[in-house]
Amino acid sequence: MKKIVSWLSLAVVAMLLVAGASARPDEGDRRLMERLERMEQQVQRLSAMQDRSPGRIGRPDGPRGPLCPPAMQASRPMPPSGPACPVTPRHMQKIGCAVRTLIFLAIVVNIILAVWVYSDTRKQSESRGIFIVLVLLAGLPAAILYALIRLGDRVGQKPS
Q1: Does residue 117 form part of some domain?
Q2: What's the number of domains the chain is made of?
Q3: In degrees rounded to 5, what are phi and psi of residue 102?
Q4: Alpha-carbon distance 67 to 49, whole Å?
Q5: What is the pLDDT of residues 104-145, one digit of tens each?
Q6: What DSSP string runs through the chain?
Q7: Using CA of residue 110, residue 113, residue 115, residue 117, what is the dihedral sign?
Q8: Which residues, including other chains, have CB under 8 Å from residue 146's CB and lie 6 or more apart?
Q9: Between these two residues, 153 and 20, which has the higher pLDDT value?
């Protein structure tokens, strides 16, 4: 029981360290976000300049006609209506933090399952070290496989 409590406390401390490290962006991320924002502003300026500029050289200003023949216009896909939902750097940062947290939780669950398999094999005084490795690598499916094999062993034993 003391080992399980120590493993859980170690997992909680590690989770707090990862959460603290992912909460504050480092210098490289900040510079990357600023550069991305400058590039977006430049694209918007170029788009506005393109809208203001006249069509081809020698062509009068005013509404432009279709660029493709009428037969091809019917088959062209229509652009999506409404404003597009831009993904801001802040959204990307939150998504990255969530992904890191999920990966960390998966690792913690795998370690807890491996500790359970280890303690169960010690109670039985059997050597099933391969299951400990499988649980560390594959996680929950390997723990379920171990539990099914363990149940099969109990059913196969005759009561004394």
Answers
A1: yes
A2: 1
A3: -65, -40
A4: 20
A5: 999 999 999 989 888 888 887 777 778 888 888 888 888 888
A6: -HHHHHHHHHHHHHHHHHHHHHHS--HHHHHHHHHHHHHHHHHHHHHHHHHHS-SSTTPPSS----SS-HHHHTTSPPPPPS------HHHHHHHHHHHHHHHHHHHHHHHHHHHHHHHHHHHHT---HHHHHHHHHH-HHHHHHHHHHHHHHHHHSPP-
A7: negative
A8: 117, 120, 128, 131, 134, 135
A9: 153
Is residue 71 one of the residues assigned to a domain?
A: no
For the record, the structure tokens of 141 come out as 């499916």
Rg for the chain, CA atoms, rounded:
30
Q: Does the reported pTM lie above 0.70?
A: no
Is residue 33 domain-resident?
Answer: no
Residues in the chain, how many? 160
**Does the residue 147 lie in any domain?**
yes
- Its domain, for residue 157, covers 1-24+88-160
